[in-house]
Each structure stands twice: as structure tokens, then as C-alpha cells.
Amino acid sequence: MLSLPLENGNSDLVFSDAVMAHFLTHQQNRFGDMEAGGQLFARLTRFEIYVEIATGPRPGDKRGRTSYAPDRSAERTEIKSMFARGLHFIGDWHTHPERFAHPSSTDERTISDCVTKSTHQLRGFVLVVVGTGPLPECLSISIYGNHELSSSKFDLRTSLNRLRVKR
Ligand SMILES: [Zn+2]
Q1: Ligand 1: distance of its center to the CA of 110 in Å?
Q2: How far is the CA of 103 from the centre of ligand 1 (A)?
Q3: Which pTM does this prediction carry?
Q4: pLDDT (tens digit per residue) in 94-112
Q5: How far is the CA of 7 from the centre of ligand 1 (A)?
Q6: Ligand 1 centre and the CA of 8: distance in Å?
Q7: Tens digit of pLDDT for each residue in 133-144?
Q8: CA of 111 to the centre of ligand 1 (A)
Q9: Which long-range contacts does 78-82 make (Cβ < 8 Å, 24+ apart)?
Q10: Which of 9, 55, 63, 157 has an alpha carbon 20 to 30 Å from 23's alpha carbon atom?
Q11: Contact assessment for residue 37 and residue 57, using Cβ atoms and an 8 Å cutoff
Q12: Ligand 1 centroid to residue 46 C-alpha, Å
């Protein structure tokens, strides 16, 4: 489990062990590994955004060594079925073939579109990029635009000591 305090001071963004294990499984550790990705689904409480499930990759995704385009129709189906289980779509994840991940300029552009389209109560969007290094240091976790959440970026490589992180 990985728990990060949000800038609003009242709640944490928490990634379940299952989600962390899912990231680990899809790291691009070998030269031929393609980028993988999917969506993040969370239970929302007053105190936590508990990211319980990470989906993908799916057969319909377009995956390259340094590119990833999700199957949009599979994404919509996931959002509906997870919502029926009380799980809210809160963002996306994908891998990069770099040791410590950073969002690319394409990633940043895609995300700002998603923030404007987002309708859930957070009015923000979480992007996790998974590098090839050790977890959780190789993760880049960004929260883009919102009201209740301040936009923030967790560079876990440099901020692990400062953050209250449960590992
Ligand atoms: Zn990317």
C-alpha cells in the first residue's frame, strides 16, 4: 500500500497492494516490452481516495515501445461496470521505458483534456506513470486541476522522505 497526503490536508490518496502489484507486473523491464496502461478506480470517503483497482492493458489497446493508446470503448465499459460496484474512475496509469518516470508532453496534453471532461466529484484527474526502477520510487504521480484537490505532483524519488508514506 502506498499512501500520499493530499494538499487539502484532509485526505490521502491511497494505492492498494493489488494496484501496486499490477504496476509491478507491467513494468517495461525487458527491451521488447511495450508500454502498458489502463484506468484507476477508487472508493471515495471523507478521508481517502482509495485506489482499489487498476485495469488494463486490454487486447484493443495500441501499444508501442514508447507509445500507448487505450481502447476507448473498453474504457467506457470499464467505467460503467466499476461504477455499478461503487468504484469511481479517477485517472489513468501507463508505463514508460525509463527508470524514474516523468509524464511526457503528450501525457500532459491528454490529461488536461481529461480534466475538462471529468465529471466525478474530485474534479481532478490522477496520472500515474510507472518507470522501470524500484517501486514506489519509479512512480510519477500527478494530480491535475480541480477544486477540492489542489494540483500536485509527487516525485517519489526525491519526496519519499518528506511525505508520510506507508509502504
Ligand atoms: Zn507517457
Answers
A1: 10
A2: 5
A3: 0.87
A4: 999 999 998 898 888 887 7
A5: 24
A6: 27
A7: 999 999 998 887
A8: 10
A9: 78/38, 78/39, 78/41, 79/39, 82/41, 82/53, 82/55
A10: 9
A11: yes
A12: 31
The CA 63 to ligand 1 mean position distance, Å, reads 11
What cell was used for 112? 488536461
- Segments making up each domain of the chain, as ranges: 2-159
Residues 6 or more apart whose Cβ sits within 8 Å of residue 66: 35, 96, 97
Distance separating alpha carbons of residues 49 and 42, to the nearest angstrom:
6
Most confidently modeled range among 14-23, 116-125, 154-163: 14-23
**CATH number of this structure's domain 2-159, picked from the four choices 3.40.1190.20, 3.40.140.10, 3.60.150.10, 1.10.3720.10:** 3.40.140.10
Instruction: State the CB neighbour count (10 A cutoff) for residue 156.
Output: 21
Question: Each residue of 28-80: pLDDT tens digit?
Answer: 999 999 999 999 999 988 888 899 999 999 999 999 999 999 999 999 999 99
